[in-house]
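User: My collaborator sent over this chain with a note saying "see what the structure looks like." That's all I know about it. Can you take a look?
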Amino acid sequence: MTNHLRASDLDLDTKTDDGLFGWFLASLLFARPIQEQVAAHAWRVLIADGFTTPESFVAAGSSVIDHELWQGNYRRLVGVMAEELPRVMSALIEEYGSVRKLVATAKNKVELEARLELFRGVGPKTAEIFLREVPLDAIGRALPAA
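Assistant: Without extra context I'll predict from the sequence alone. Here is the result:
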């Protein structure tokens, strides 16, 4: 069995709003055929440069995100992800408002997985990565404030 990076490797606590969002973003980056360490580096660059909310991706647009991903060495799929990240974040805002609400309003893990996969560009691999770090007791109930 391969050891994959975990939320804690990125200093994320998925029991908080910020941690859930950070892990969602990481899951989007990790799910692509990119080396995990490269995806983690790109994640760190995005976070360090203020991409810490869904709104920050929507406001920035694809050209800025393209530059950020390039700086993070996420070069193989930079164009695809520069378009996908704002689109997914916009849909997240429109449908749920936040990752916290996405998780807390799902009835169970199966429903949460299905919700994730409804986002264009989010497939089974992204859902699998995200779900492996979401506290099961967070699904269907409110989380403590960040």
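A starting point for your reply to your collaborator: The CA atoms of residues 2 and 125 lie 15 Å apart.
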